Amino acid sequence: MRSIWVITKRELASYFDSLIAYVMIIIFLGLSGFFTWLFGSNVFLIGQADLQVFFGISYWTLFFFIPAITMRSIAEENSSGTIELLSTKAVSDWQIVVGKFMASLLLLVIALACTIPYYITVAKLGNVDHGAIIGGYFGLLLMSAMYISIGIFSSSLTNNQIVAFLLALFIGIFFHILFQLMASGSTGMIGSIMDYLSVRTHFESLSRGVIDTRDLIYFGSFILAGLVLSQTMLSKRNWHN
Fold first, then answer.
1. Residue-level pLDDT, tens digit, the chain, 241 residues
2. Tally of CB atoms within 10 A around 116
3. Which of 19, 74, 88, 149 could form a disulfide bond with 155, CB atoms 3.0-4.6 angstroms apart?
4. Type and span of the H or E element at 109
């Protein structure tokens, strides 16, 4: 556990040292704040004391931001050769993967924590469904964790950060858009499977304040699968060496 925490701190510090963290947080807050309070179907226009507008825009912004965060996690180490040095420090491949996953997740937690004033402001505007808001934040966190694991896996497949970014987007687009479209055009068991595979189905369930074990199993399974596949790719590299 100590090794994982050391890698997590090192990776998180690298985000802030390279300004990636600052840029991501500022753009995320700017976009989410603009659409939540000022533009389109904002809080004041719909006349409801909730954060559904914020959750809706965050659902899309995080989808694009997370691959940009994770694309360098292993690809950069592969390109520079530092992954080999890290592997000689009595650190297992699993610890490397989990440490990088935790660093990216902590960065997302920090970004979401910066939006807590939105929650406080909305609560002062009227009666709010606290369960739905907490569920929405929980859904964003689980969705982010899932896409982080996919992004790290994509990064483990290549030495090129741009390729890792595009690959993470390509995989993510199935869960974010395509499975939902296929579900709407299918019936029976196929439609149910496509609907279950869609991130939106589970995210919307959580954002209503409903904590369903099916949603937890869905996100947990894909998070674990992404981490295990990333570890497998690192182990495969070691086997070739």
1. 778 888 899 899 988 888 888 999 999 999 988 888 877 666 666 666 678 889 999 999 999 999 999 998 888 877 766 666 666 667 788 898 999 999 999 999 999 999 999 888 888 877 888 888 999 999 999 999 999 999 999 999 988 999 999 999 999 999 999 999 998 877 788 889 999 999 999 999 998 888 889 999 999 999 999 999 999 988 876 544 4
2. 10
3. 74
4. helix 93-113
Give the integer Cα–Cα distance in Å for 141 and 110.
11
Q: Which two tokens stand for residue 42?
A: 């904002």
What span, in angstroms and rounded, lies between the C-alpha atoms of 15 and 104? Answer: 9
Distances (CA, A) of 178 to 68, 74, 141, 222: 21, 27, 21, 17
Query: What's at 106, amino acid-wise?
Result: L
Of the candidates 206, 202, 204, the residue with the CA atom closest to the CA atom of residue 218: 202
Instruction: Tell me the chain's radius of gyration from C-alpha atoms.
Output: 19
Boundaries of every domain in the chain? 2-240
DSSP letters of 183-228?
HHT--HHHHHHHHHH-HHHHHHHHHTT---HHHHHHHHHHHHHHHH
Helix axes 130-156, 116-125, angle to 10 degrees: 160
Which residues contact residue 196 at a Cβ distance below 8 angstroms, ignoring those fewer than 6 apart? Answer: 214, 218
